[in-house]
Specification:
heterodimer; A: 471 residues; alpha+beta; Rossmann fold; 4 domains; 5-stranded mixed beta sheet; 4-stranded antiparallel beta sheet; 13 helices; flat; B: 439 residues; alpha/beta; Spore Coat Polysaccharide Biosynthesis Protein SpsA, Chain A; 2 domains; 8 strands; binds zinc ion
């Protein structure tokens, strides 16, 4: 082990590159301070681990960092090859890549990073940031042994563990529906019914007991006596002659005194005799033995970024329309803003108190990773249900991001508004405890009165500042 | 009609003149063979069967207890070609069985329709246990032997694909094995499902009801029951294996029972094990079927198993009698009938018309009598017996002329031309082999 030393900081023009060896000690946050990373290693595993760690970091300053490999040969691995920005053969070549680094950094400068409210939107926007910053339009699938599907989308699959990679296919479908990508057929794959991974071992098995241990033999029909049996019935230990166990005659000529009407399998485990074996697909991941008829067929497509998709990088991608469609009781953030504006206007003519508030799951990162995307949605939906039960229909709710709700609680004293939120928090915690044992939810909340003197936008920004500070 | 009325008038004035002796002289064929054997003997045998059943009710109950106690695996085997359309009905009737421990083995003998797809889908749904498809046809015997080779049951029940079973049919056909351990095979009671289809089918239904059904009950009681119909029969698997299964047909149904008998096993008929099947629905198809059956008698009784008549260490008096009875009542009776016709033409040329009408009348009466009297002994009926009454006179023609002529043609063809080897019922490759080695 050794610290990153001065000799590992390489300068080229106004850029600083950091060189990382297998022996280096570093934190990923350290890379924020440099313009590019040079990995100086021939160890494929080390390179992959580092590249994955960088590209899956949660800060754009880290995950979009240009990465180069200092190596004496070309990169064959499609995952690494697509996640790094190039290979240099010596550090004297920094000059050549400096301009490329500049282009990437310039593009990133124009990006707008918004927090997404769902993992789906999060993954889509990160794929797009990475692609647009490299001016790439193609997201292709490559055959890949270490992938849960057998195919890897380098810029996208890294956000999933091999067991969860099938979820990426749904994410990409959503992205396509949103018009961010177009697709082109690449291949068809079949996934395990139990865990939806695609590395399967296919075997011909006994239809009775599913054992693959069997023996196949020709059935022989002796014409003159009508005896039928597997060829072993006719064979003997001494010579190659075939003679009939029923009539003892020699079988001389196929088609004249005997024929082989069928092939018969005999199971060595249960003794069952069969002709049409079943094909079963054993899952290497979860060991489930699938009937091939039930395997889940999926299409692997190659994707092309659309103009609309490119624009995501410059505007941010908070949510897919699906996220909102699926969670009733909320309005889109834009709609929320408009409604808030009307509320402020209304208050100017009325002598009443309305409030603006937030509810934030402060341990969302840990919580969501423990319960998974699907249940995350369930949890949020349930929380909205509790809210709607305790609020009046004139109150409105919107997602600010995946872990934060903003609310407008109208015509009630601020103190009562806070009490209502308190109740909701308690009810949500109880609900979670009932459904997910060993998982605690931490929810911050705060309600403040709307001020008729200030614009709705400023008041909203103030509120957002408040919970961003809390974090 | 006037002619017939005149003949009848003439007949009655004639018999008032002649005595009983003369009457028997004229109608000897009917009196000796038909009435004696087909009514009197049957009637007596049925009474004995009835009494025996009453007396051995306990034994039957005990057999049933043992059957369900040991719960042996039954292999139901169904070989066939292009039978896909019938399989579902069969499978459905099997699902309803009171006896549950069976495996269903279907052998598709080179079908060129959608049989394979139908069976595979039934198999996927667990309604067929073993399905074997032969790309090239091998014939009925090889299909059954294929199933036998893969069967795991203690008993084999052979079914035709176009049969369906009564709910307790499997149970009933296995019970005789538990009543008497010398039983090697049991024949089921075939009833005509499509009796309402045409004149041909209702006449066959009548025939299965009386001549075949009752005939087999009696034959079984007398120990001379010969043919286990391929449509529904049960066999001990170990014995079937011992005789290496079925030999090339046609007539393999009769052949296999001969092989069982030669080993000393009893063959019995179980009228309470009922199977419904479809029969040929026109006379052309029926004629073809009967020609095949009748030819096989010559081929198997007189050629393949002629050793039954030769006294050696395997000789069995019962087998000998059974064969003799069979040959007598089929070939012999057929010949005698022609002899009778000649006798009448030569000795009573003046009253031949009257004799034909009278014979017709006598046969009709005995048919009606049988239909009603025997009905008392049938434990399971396919159809109400009254539907058969209008067909009683036609049955006389069916039995007396139609079947007799078909039989005569079959015997002649087989005796002099060995024409069964040319039958497309078997693939050419097996027929030519069979002919070559003389079976
Ligand atoms: Zn098995
Ligand atoms: Zn042989
Ligand atoms: Zn799996």
């Amino acid at each position: 082990m050794r610290e990153v030393v001065d000799s590992d900081i390489l300068r080229q023009g106004s850029f600083e590159f950091i060189r990382i060896h297998e022996q280096s000690t570093y934190t990923l946050e350290l890379f924020m301070a440099y313009d590019s990373i040079i990995i100086d290693s021939g160890n494929r595993d080390f390179v992959e681990k580092l590249v994955r760690a960088v590209r899956t970091h949660n800060q754009p300053d880290v995950y979009l960092k240009p990465i180069f490999l200092l190596k004496s040969s070309k990169v064959e691995d499609p995952l690494i090859g697509n996640l790094i920005d190039g290979v240099i053969f010596s550090i004297n070549q920094l000059e050549i890549i400096a301009d490329y680094v500049r282009q990437i950094l310039l593009r990133i400068n124009d990006f707008v990073f918004a927090k997404s409210i769902s993992l789906e939107a999060e993954v889509i926007s990160r794929i797009i940031y990475l692609m647009v910053s490299r001016d790439k339009n193609e997201l292709f699938a490559y055959l890949y042994l270490n992938s849960g599907l057998g195919y890897v989308y380098p810029e996208a699959s890294i956000y999933f563990t091999p067991r969860d990679e099938h979820k990426l296919l749904n994410v990409m479908k959503t992205a396509e529906i949103e018009g961010l990508f177009t697709s082109e057929f690449n291949d068809r794959i079949y996934l395990c019914t139990n865990c939806e991974t695609g590395i399967l071992s296919y075997r011909e098995v006994c239809p009775k007991c599913s054992s693959a241990n069997s023996k196949a033999e020709d059935l022989v029909h002796h014409f003159s006596c009508a005896y039928v049996g597997p060829i072993s019935d006719f064979q003997n230990a001494i010579d190659d002659e075939l003679n009939c166990p029923k009539c003892n005659k020699f079988l001389n000529h196929i088609g004249v005194d005997y024929d082989k009407p069928a092939l018969l399998h005999t199971c060595n485990k249960c003794g069952h005799k069969y002709q049409d074996y079943h094909v079963k697909a054993k899952c290497i991941t979860c060991y489930h033995d699938n009937d091939v008829e039930n395997l889940i067929p999926r299409t692997i497509s190659n994707y092309y970024l659309t103009k609309k998709g490119r624009n995501i990088a410059y505007h941010g991608f908070i949510s897919t329309s699906k996220d909102f469609n699926e969670i009733p009781g909320t309005v889109k953030f834009d709609v929320f803003k408009t409604m808030l504006e009307y509320e402020v206007e209304r208050l100017k003519q009325n002598d009443a108190t309305s409030n603006i508030a937030y509810l934030k799951i402060s341990n969302a990162g840990e919580l969501y990773s423990r319960i998974g995307i699907d249940r995350q949605k369930t949890l949020v939906t349930e929380m909205i249900k509790i809210l709607r039960k305790n609020l009046r229909s004139s109150d409105f709710i919107a997602f600010y991001n995946a872990s934060t709700l903003i609310l407008s609680l109208n015509e009630i004293p601020t103190k009562i508004a806070n009490n209502v939120l308190d109740d909701v928090v308690k009810l949500t915690a109880t609900l979670l405890k009932k459904n997910f044992r060993n998982i605690e939810i931490e929810i911050d909340h705060h309600a403040q009165p709307l001020n008729t003197e200030l614009s709705h936008e400023i008041q909203l920004q103030n509120l957002i500042k408040k919970f961003d500070q809390d974090a | 009609m006037d002619f017939i009325a005149a003949e009848i008038d003439y007949f009655f004035s004639y018999i008032s003149e002649v005595g009983t002796g003369k009457l028997i002289r004229i109608f000897w064929f009917f009196v000796i063979f038909e009435f004696a054997r087909l009514f009197v003997i049957d009637f007596l045998a049925l009474i004995f069967i009835y009494v025996k059943r009453k007396l051995t009710k306990k034994k039957r109950k005990e057999a049933r207890r043992l059957l369900f106690l040991y719960n042996p695996l039954i292999s139901i085997i169904v070989p066939g070609k292009n039978e896909g359309k019938n399989i579902y009905k069969l499978v459905s009737s099997l699902k309803e069985q009171t006896y549950r421990n069976f495996e269903l083995i279907i052998v598709d003998d080179g079908s060129d329709d959608n049989t394979e797809q139908i069976c595979k889908s039934l198999k996927r749904n667990g309604m067929i246990d073993v399905f074997i498809r032969n790309e090239v046809r091998g014939g009925k015997a090889s299909g059954a032997n294929t199933a036998l080779r893969v069967a795991k049951g203690d008993y084999i029940v052979h079914l035709d694909a176009d049969s369906s079973l009564d709910r307790d049919a499997i149970e009933q056909i296995i019970l005789p094995f538990y009543e008497d351990d010398r039983v090697g095979a049991v024949g089921g009671n075939i009833m005509v499902r499509n009796y309402n289809d045409s004149l041909a089918t209702i006449l066959q239904s009548f025939e299965y009801n009386d001549a075949i059904g009752i005939g087999r009950m009696v034959a079984s009681y007398l120990g001379v029951y010969r043919i286990i119909s391929g449509a529904f029969g049960a066999f001990r698997t170990d014995v079937l294996q011992k005789v290496h299964g079925w030999d090339i047909g046609p007539g393999l149904d009769g052949d296999i029972t001969v092989k069982f008998r030669k080993l000393g096993y009893k063959i019995v008929f179980e009228d309470r094990a009922v199977c419904q099947t479809s029969v040929p629905n026109n006379f052309k198809k029926l004629t073809k079927q009967r020609l095949r059956w009748d030819k096989s008698l010559i081929r198997f009784r007189l050629r393949k198993h002629k050793d039954v008549f030769i006294p050696n260490e395997n000789f069995s008096i019962l087998n000998f009698l059974s064969f003799l009875e069979n040959i007598f009542f089929t070939i012999g009776l057929n010949l005698k009938w022609y002899f009778y016709i000649i006798d009448m033409l030569v000795n009573f040329p003046g009253i031949v018309g009257m004799i034909i009408v009278m014979n017709f009348f006598l046969y009709s009466c005995s048919n009606a009598l049988k239909l009603m009297v025997f009905n008392f002994f049938r434990e399971r009926r396919n159809s109400p017996i009254y539907i058969y009454f209008p067909f009683i006179p036609l049955m006389v023609i069916y039995h007396g002329y139609y079947l007799r002529i078909v039989r005569s043609i079959a015997y002649l063809k087989e005796l002099f031309f060995k024409s069964s080897y040319k039958d497309a019922w078997n693939p050419e490759k097996t027929s030519s082999k069979a002919k070559q080695i003389g079976i």
